[in-house]
Amino acid sequence: xGSIAFSLPTPLPTAARATLDSAVFTAGEEQVPVxxxxxxxxxxxxxxxxxxxxxxxxxxxxxxxxxTLVATxxxxxxxxxxYRLLVELARGKLNQVRTCTAQWQSIGLKTPPDxxxxxxxxxxxxxxxxxxxxxxxxxxxxxxxxxxxxLADQLVREYVGQMFDVRHAEEGLxxxxxxxxxxxxPGPLAADYSRSFNAARVALPWRVIEPEESRYDWSxxxxxxxxxxxxxxPITAGPIIDLAAGMVPDWxxxxxxxxxxxxxxxxxxxxxxxxxxxxxxxxWVVCAGFNHADAIGLDDDERLRLAFRxxxxxxxxxxxxxxxxxxxxxxxxxxAREEHTISPVTFPDDLIRAGLKVSAIELEVRPGxxxxxxxxxxxxxxxxxxxxxxxLGLPLELLLSYPATSQADPLAAAHxxxxxSPAWRTPPTPEGQAEWGxxxxxVGLCTPQVRAVTWDNWSDSxxxxxxxxxxxxxxxxxxxxxxxxxxxxxxxxx
Length: 494
Fold this sequence. Notes:
Elements: E1 2-7, H1 14-19, E2 24-27, E3 32-34, E4 37-41, E5 44-49, E6 56-62, E7 68-72, E8 83-84, H2 85-106, H3 113-131, H4 136-171, E9 177-182, H5 190-196, E10 200-202, H6 206-209, H7 219-230, E11 235-237, E12 241-242, H8 250-253, H9 259-277, E13 283-288, H10 300-317, E14 322-327, H11 346-353, E15 360-365, E16 369-370, H12 379-390, E17 396-400, H13 410-413, E18 418-419, H14 430-446, E19 450-455, H15 481-492
Parallel strand pairs: 1-8, 9-10, 9-19, 10-11, 11-13, 12-13, 13-14, 14-15, 15-17, 17-19
Antiparallel strand pairs: 1-5, 2-3, 2-6, 4-5, 6-7, 16-18
Helix pairs in contact: 2-3, 2-4, 3-4, 4-14, 9-10, 14-15
């Protein structure tokens, strides 16, 4: 086992002290986290791991106006003297920005003069930080880290705008599906929904639909499917099985750890749901959270076999169905725990290599929510995530979620979900949700490999995972994000 020491800035920001427990080494081209032992000794962070390959350190860090975001160092080697943590985080982010800038410029991206000037200044500031004594080097490095995140944000927004221009010139208005997930349908806000989205997504919470074995309540989903059909919207349904806490009915969860019995129950539910709506729904999200969750006592390999059974059963019902796998925590945050061994990329790849029909891979991006969500990342990390998963050779779909409030949310709490407090130096707001949601939705919509973008929660009055994340609050009031999404649909989509 090797260890690397990092000198912490003095004084250590209060917000940073709360995030150091989430610092992990990452490895490989995917930069997947590996189990990491951490210890804080006075003004140092000591991180240990058991592998000998090259490594990076990723840590959520307070970055000025951007809030807490994951920052990653460049490649590290073992050495006797401590690294200065802020210097290495600044080096890593600046290197990411410079590399992406060069790559995108080589394929035609135009950057404005003020961007080039700011990038040069950040590079010069980093050189000064390297040669400055402590604590001045930490102050300079902190500034470079903020500059680098600001440049990353500007770079991606330039990329998104120019990508839209190129695609519109070649394709006209885009055919990407744009939807919000709902259990009951938009109800009295149906007109607002249809102006904002060109597709429907009907959630199928097993616990709600089959509260007792073989006793079904189809009232909500029948209404949602009928509303989408009447509006002429193409429908995606699912996930059929989600392994988040509280999603599996109590009568089935009683068989915890019994893979054959659980598989039989789940396949029976899947077949019942697909047969009921097959005439209206041709695209199904078969399963979600299988790469991450362990709410029913199954290990990684058992959940992989269970996913195989479900896709196989769906394919046998109708070989022409469009079958999607949803991947939770696509950056692999869960791999920091010893019990998890299959990366987010490897999980669907194993199914594809086994010959199953997987039509697309959906990536969940729900920052700052535990245990289902990911640590907060910026737009540039998200673009690179899409590029990584595109290597699997399948279309991608993007599922987005972000809180608009920090008030208690009993429906999310029923699934064991809460906000990760270190991510929120100020409480989430409707305006913050609107800015984040519109920005990340634009990234998905402009990307050619992405064929669908879905906001995960239409209303806080319906079952959901991310607290306070609805486009409509529990009292039926529309949040500002809906208008921002409507503008994206009107500008870019058919």
